[in-house]
């Protein structure tokens, strides 16, 4: 009797093992491509499933550096080909750590155009990387503009109030707040700090607009590209959401085009009331998209 019980038990076990062997095993999850956080360190998984090493430029044109194990480096200086590059707390390259001219420097010529000098020599027919952004220079060494006509009469480093033609009101930081994502609207011209904008030109001919009080940049929220995407202020980060092409309308006014979206700085619905929202919208030449730049500093 005991032998029969043992045989039945063995048979049951073998049957179970056979059935388990016939069941499909759960497939492993597909390898994730992109940024991965692991043990407080950031990695970037490439399309072949391996960790990125060395320098990498992301979709926003920002450069990052990964060590031989694939760990993104931050708050440090990396030496590549004899040049030292500083990385910020978020890992993004923030510029060279050396001040000698062998690293190169942009200078504005007497003709009003920008040139890049390295060891006193103008570089030509090449691409210059400055703070993680690529700029092309031509056969004469001058930077090549990528986004249309220049803004005649706009001086880099000068401070302006920006008046909307349709409403007669000023581009304004809501309640003079200084936080990221603070809304930008129009409000009657009151000469307050909330309505001051310092305009700086990049070597590629585009501009950033900085509110001096908050020290934050005019920004398209979350780098969106749709009509009615909101405009706010945000810490300067060098992305195309904060780069603008200022184009003369040849009548003393300008249109201000966001590089990231290709859309114009626009007063919502062509409104004229205080606190009317400012967004981006397809360039249509209306007064809601025409702006006067009045220099105040």
What does this structure look like?
By secondary structure, the chain is mainly β. It folds into three domains: 34-87, left handed beta-beta-3-solenoid; 98-148, left handed beta-beta-3-solenoid (Ribbon); 158-296, Trefoil (Acidic Fibroblast Growth Factor, subunit A) (Trefoil). 7% of the residues lie in helices and 38% in strands. It has one helix and 24 strands. The strands form eight sheets. It has an eight-stranded antiparallel beta sheet with strand order 22-23-19-18-17-16-13-24, with no helix packed on it. Residues 1-30, 96-102 and 146-150 have low confidence and may be disordered. This is Glucan endo-1,3-beta-glucosidase.
Brief characterization of the structure:
7% of the residues lie in helices and 38% in strands. The protein is mainly beta.
């Amino acid at each position: 009797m005991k032998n029969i019980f043992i045989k039945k038990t063995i048979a049951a076990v073998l049957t179970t093992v056979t059935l388990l062997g016939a069941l499909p095993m759960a497939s492993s999850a597909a390898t994730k491509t992109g940024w991965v956080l692991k043990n407080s360190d950031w990695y970037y998984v490439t399309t072949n499933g391996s960790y990125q090493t060395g320098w990498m430029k992301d979709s926003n044109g920002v450069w990052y550096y990964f060590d031989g194990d694939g760990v993104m480096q931050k708050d440090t200086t990396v030496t590549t080909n004899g040049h030292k590059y500083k990385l910020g707390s978020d890992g993004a390259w923030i510029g060279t750590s050396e001040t000698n001219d062998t690293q190169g420097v942009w200078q504005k010529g007497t003709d009003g155009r920008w040139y890049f000098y390295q060891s006193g020599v103008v570089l030509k027919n090449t691409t210059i990387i400055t703070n993680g952004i690529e700029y092309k220079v031509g056969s004469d060494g001058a930077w090549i503009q990528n986004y249309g006509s220049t803004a005649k009469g706009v001086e880099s480093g000068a401070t302006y109030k920006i008046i909307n033609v349709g409403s007669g009101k000023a581009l304004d930081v809501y309640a003079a707040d200084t936080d990221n994502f603070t809304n930008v609207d129009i409000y009657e011209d009151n000469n307050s700090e909330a309505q001051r904008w310092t305009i700086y030109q990049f070597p590629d001919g585009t501009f950033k607009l900085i509110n001096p009080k908050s020290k934050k940049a005019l920004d398209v929220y979350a780098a969106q590209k749709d009509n009615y995407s909101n405009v706010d202020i945000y810490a300067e980060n060098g992305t195309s959401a904060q780069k603008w092409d200022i184009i003369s309308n040849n009548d003393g006014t300008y249109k201000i085009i966001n590089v990231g979206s290709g859309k114009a700085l626009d007063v919502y619905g062509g409104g004229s009331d205080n606190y009317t929202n400012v967004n981006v919208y397809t360039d249509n030449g209306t007064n809601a998209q025409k702006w006067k730049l009045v220099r105040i500093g």
